[in-house]
Fold this sequence. Notes:
The chain is 79% helix and 0% strand. It is built from 17 helices and no strands.
Amino acid sequence: xxxxxxxxxxxxxxxxxxxxxxxxxxxxxxxxxxxxxxxxxxxxxxxxxxxxxxxxxxxxxxxxxxxxxxxxxxxxxxxxxxxxxxxxxxxxxxxxxxxxxxxxxxxxxxxxxxxxxxxxxxxxxxxxxxxxxxxxxxxxxxxxxxxxxxxxxxxxxxxxxxxxxxxxxxxxxxxxxxxxxxxxxxxxxxxxxxxxxxxxxxxxxxxxxxxxxxxxxxxxxxxxxxxxxxxxxxxxxxxxxxxxxxxxxxxxxxxxxxxxxxxxxxxxxxxxxxxxxxxxxxxxxxxxxxxxxxxxxxxxxxxxxxxxxxxxxxxxxxxxxxxxxxxxxxxxxxxxxxxxxxxxxxxxxxxxxxxxxxxxxxxxxxxxxxxxxxxxxxxxxxxxxxxxxxxxxxxxxxxxx
Length: 401
């Protein structure tokens, strides 16, 4: 098999995995009203359904890196997919406890893929890693779009439990593709040398060196601000539109799908922009302006919500691709990718997990959306400032004794 065809099949496997990674979360917000009424959840309680998996993204990130070293990257991602499937089915079995446990399990599974798929991208695509990262994020956006737009119609047919459970069918497809095109290609020697790291000297395992780097902290803050903005809006955009723009829940669900879908163009093009200059801070600042305009528009001129939703979607697609691409660009080898990715997700998703909860609490406390919008504007400012530092032309290498 030619090297080009081999990389094409690996890319196919990455696309299949990424398609499963946001759907389990994005399917929930359009159904929050029905789900909350059925289970008796408050606004703050309902926000846990989005905040909890994001919290798991943070807490499980070190475990994901360790699992990649022990099992190999390919096999570890299979474990992550199994957890996504089990959690998606398990959360609809009974009441609130199983709903929350299943949601947490989904978060752990997605974390494993979040941390380790970029390692495969860095290892197997080299100079094309930025472009492939764009495909990775764009496919996540497609998955989120499909689940957001179809959740309400599916709930009308099958109820909210069926609408959440039906997305489990995507997991076996992703597992088969990943096993055939990634796991089976990792022969024992390659897996030891490149993913499990067993053959590497002991110092290569000490990923903690990145915690002393200002660059790593800037990446983590940018990651956290972007994550908090995305998950806050994924959770509450339908509610904001129902309250501020006087649309129906069905239209709000379609708007959320639009928010996800319009991420695709910028997710695919942002990697090319990172090559225009040696420093990429200007890209992060532009993304922050896009987020800010979106938020101000929703509050000041809610009747123009289609325009603001498209602008927000473009910003969030660019933002995720940007921070993931920066992790790859700032890394001199795949050990640093894993270390920066693990730290970025641990710190970043702790911030991200707080976002939906804080927005829900502010909305419930103040009875409106102005205060939540102010909080999210502060996050956009943090994203822009951190990007100016993280975007500098610096490459981090694994320290040698």
